[in-house]
C-alpha cells in the first residue's frame, strides 16, 4: 500500500506547527510543502517523511497546482489566508484534489470585514459590533469624526496590518482622537487602494470595545464545528501590553479547553458564535465551509464574548500551543473535515498542561520591516529540546545554507509545564536565550507572557467585564438609549 | 515634584496635545513645568505655567516634562545626536543627557546606576534618534508608573492619574533600580538587583492626587485608612468632623467613618483648588490665598465639639486660620486637631520637598505650645508605625527622613 501523502501550502510558523502535528499521525504520512521561503523546520519534516519541498508562490494557484500534480497528495492543507483569497482551494478542488481550506468565496469571512460584520447582523449572531463600510475615504473620515471612539480597519484583510484604535477613554480626548482617526482614514485608504484591487470597500469604521482578548480556533466541514482549546494571543509588541500592534508576540493556553480567566459558559458561547457563523455562511453562499475558522474574540462589558475578527485559518502563534495539547490524530481531523466526515471525529486533548509560546522578532518588526530583513540567525535546537520545548520557524528563509530573517516574527518557542504558566514562561525565556543573530542584530520578545503579574492583570480585567455584561444580560439590556441634548433620543438596537 | 513622559509609536500623532492633560494632572505638584518635545530629530525645550489660562506644547511625537522647582531639564548633543533629560533629585540631568547622546546605552545605564547620587533620583529622557528612557533610582524614593494607550503610546509619570488623563491605562511601577529603554522598534529593561522600595512617605501623605496609584498603592484608600487608624487612637467624643480642604478630605472621611460621626463641609473655596503650600508666592500672598480658600459655611458648628482632620502640619498656618475662623464665627465648644501623619521636622535630604526647617512648627515647638498657637483643646498625631504597617503590606518601607520617628 502506498503512503498517505499530504501537501502543505505555506511556509510560516503556523505551517510548521501544522506539519509537526500532521507528522505525528499514525497514518505516517509523507509530507510535501510549497512556500516562497525555505522553512528549515518544514523542510526537515518533509525530508524525514520522503516528501518534497517546492519553492513557489503559495498565493499562485498555478504554482500550487503544479506541486500538487507532481505529488498527487491525498490531502492538501492550506495554511495562510492569502492563498485562500486568491482561489488556491478552488483551483485544486476543481482538479479533484481533497483540500483542507475554504474557497475564495467562503474565505470572504476573513478577507472582507464588511461581509463578516454584515453576516453577523443579518443572521443575528451574538457578539456583534456596530460598524460601517466605506468606498470613499472622505465619507469614512467624516463618519469617524462624527461617531468617535472608533477602530479604523482596512476593509480587506491586510495581514493584520493597518488596524488602528482611536480610543476615547475620556471625553476630553475626543477632539484629538477624532481628528487623528479622520486623517488616518485617508492615508490608510490610499495605501489599501494601491495594494489591493480585489475589493470595492476600502475602510471599515467600528465601535471600539474593551476587554480581554482570546482566540477560539475551530475545524469545520461546513456541517459540524469542532472547537479547539482556547488560546490567548498577545498582540502588543512590548511587555505589559505596550507598544505597536503585531501579528502576535506569543500566546498561552490550558489547562484543558479554557483559560483561567474564562468560564465554561463563555467558552460555549464563543463556540456557538462560530457555529452560527458557519451555518449562516451556508445560508448566505450555499456552500459548505471546509477548513479552519477562528474567532478572534474579546470578553467585553457589553456582550461578554464578542467577535473582533474571523480568520479563515488557524491563528499564528495560537496553533503552536496546540503542539503540546492535541493528543488525538490531527491529520485524521483535517482529513475528516476535508471529506465532510467530522461528526464522527473524537478530539482528545492533554487536559493538564499549561502552554506558553513566545515569538522572537528582529528589531524593526512591525513598524520598520526593512531593517528587520536579511539578518543571519542561529538556533540551538538541542538546548531548546532538552528544556522540553519546541521550536517553530516562521519569518526565516534558508538561503545557501544560511538562515536569514525575512522581516517578520522569525522564530517561536513553545514550552509546556504541568505546574503552571510561570514555569512554562521561564522555560521559554531559557529557550529564547539560545536564539541569536550572527551579526549581533537585536532580537526582541516579550518576557511577561505567562507571568503571574500578567495573568493577574488579565483576570482582573475579565472579572470586571463579566460583572458588567452579566448585569446587562440579567436586565435584558440589548437596546442602548443615548440622549443627545437638543437632538433627542438615539436608540441602538442590538437585539434584532 | 513630578515627571512625565509620553511617547507615540506613530510619528503622525501629536504627543503634545495628549501631554497637555498629563501636565494638568501633575499641576497639584507645582506651578512651573519644564518640558522637551521631540519632533522629527529636533528637540524643543520650554517652560509653562499649567495654572495659567492659555498654554500649549509644541507639536511632536514624544514629550518629557518635570515639575519645578525639584525637577529640571538638561539638554546635550554629541555628533548630531541630541538628548534631553528631565530629572528629580540629586542627579544632574545635563550630565545624563550628555551620556545618552554620546555613549552606548549599556555603558550609560551601568554608569548611571553606579553613581550614588543617582540612587534617590528618577528621570525620563528622549533622544533625537527616537529613543526614550525612564529610570528609578536604587532606593526608590521617587516612584515612576508606566502605562499604555492602546497601540499608540507608552506613558510614564510619577503617579498614575496623569497616565489616565492622557487616555492611558496604568500597568506597572518601575522597581527601584529599574530602567526601561525603548523606541518604536525595541523595548529593553535594565534591572539592578538589590534595590530598596523606600518610596517617599510624603508622596502618600501629601503630594499625590487621591485618584492616583503611587508605586502600586491606592492613595485615596491609604489616606482613608490613615484617618481611620488615627481615629482608633483618639478616645474623645466629638459631635462632628471637618477636613481641612483639599488634601485632608479622604483622611477626614476615614476618621468620621471609624468614629461613626458625621463629616461636614466647613469651608468653601473662592479660588478653586489651589495648593497654597506649594505656590511660589510671598508669605503675605499665601495668607491671602489661604483666606480665600476657607470661607466658612455658616451655623453648622455652633457650640459643638469638632474634630478637625488635616493631612499634615508644616508651618501650622492653615490650621491656625481654620481654627481661628471656627472659634470666632461659630463659637465651637471643643477643637480636637487630628493630624493623619507623623510630625514633619526636617527638610528632605533628597529634595522631594524644599521645606525650610526654620518654618516647621513641629520642629520648633512642643505639643503644648503648638496647641496654644492653634488654639486647640487637643492635638493628636498619627503614629509613624501605623503608616509603616500599611505600606509594609505593599512591600514598601517608605522614606521618612523628614519626619520624627
Commentary on this structure:
The complex is a heterodimer of chains A (496) and B (405). With 496 residues, chain A is of the alpha+beta class. Chain A is 34% helix and 27% strand. In chain A, the strands form seven sheets. In chain A, strands 12, 15, 18, 20, 23 and 25 form a six-stranded antiparallel β-sheet that branches. In chain A, a hairpin with a 3-residue loop joins strand 13 (236-238) and strand 14. In chain A, helix 3 (61-71) packs across helix 5 (88-94) and helix 8 packs antiparallel against helix 9. Chain B has two domains: 3-196, Glutamine Phosphoribosylpyrophosphate, subunit 1, domain 1 (4-Layer Sandwich), CATH 3.60.20.10; 223-383, Rossmann fold (3-Layer(aba) Sandwich), CATH 3.40.50.2020. Chain B has a seven-stranded antiparallel β-sheet with strand order 3-2-4-1-10-9-11. In chain B, helix 6 packs across helix 7. Classes of the chains: A alpha+beta (496), B alpha+beta (405). Chain A binds chain B through residues 164-165, 167-170, 172-173, 176-177, 180, 183-184, 187, 235-245, 363-365, 367-368, 371, 442, 444, 447, 453, 457, and chain B through 9-10, 12-14, 17-18, 21, 146, 148-152, 154, 164-169, 171-172, 182, 184-187, 189.
What percent strand of chain B? 25-35%
Count of beta strands of chain B: 22
Question: Regarding CATH, which class of the largest domain in chain A?
Answer: Alpha Beta
Give me the CATH architecture of the largest domain in chain B, please. Answer: 4-Layer Sandwich
- Number of alpha- plus pi-helical segments of chain A: 16
Secondary-structure arrangement, i.e. CATH architecture of the largest domain in chain A: 2-Layer Sandwich
Query: How can the largest sheet of chain A be summarized?
Result: 6 strands, antiparallel
From the N-terminal CA to the C-terminal CA of chain B, the straight-line distance is 24 Å
Give the topology.
The complex is a heterodimer of chains A (496) and B (405).
Chain A: E1 5-9, H1 13-23, E2 30-35, H2 40-48, E3 53-55, H3 61-71, E4 75-78, H4 81-85, H5 88-94, E5 99-100, H6 108-111, H7 113-122, E6 131-134, H8 137-147, E7 150-154, E8 164-166, H9 174-195, E9 203-207, E10 211-220, E11 225-227, E12 231-233, E13 236-238, E14 242-245, E15 250-253, H10 264-285, E16 291-300, E17 304-311, H11 318-321, H12 330-338, E18 354-362, H13 369-372, E19 373-379, H14 381-386, E20 390-393, E21 396-399, E22 402-406, E23 411-417, H15 421-432, E24 435-437, E25 443-444, H16 452-474, E26 479-484, E27 488-493
Helix pairs in contact in A: 3-5, 8-9
Chain B: E1 3-8, H1 15-24, E2 32-39, E3 42-48, E4 62-68, E5 71-78, E6 81-88, H2 93-102, H3 105-114, E7 122-127, E8 132-136, E9 145-149, E10 153-157, H4 161-165, E11 169-173, E12 178-182, E13 187-191, H5 201-207, E14 213-214, E15 217-218, H6 219-232, E16 240-243, H7 249-259, E17 263-264, E18 267-268, H8 283-293, E19 295-296, E20 305-310, H9 317-330, E21 334-339, H10 361-364, H11 367-374, E22 378-381, H12 384-392
Parallel strand pairs in B: 16-17, 16-20, 20-21, 21-22
Antiparallel strand pairs in B: 1-4, 1-10, 2-3, 2-4, 5-6, 6-7, 7-8, 8-12, 9-10, 9-11, 12-13, 14-15, 18-19
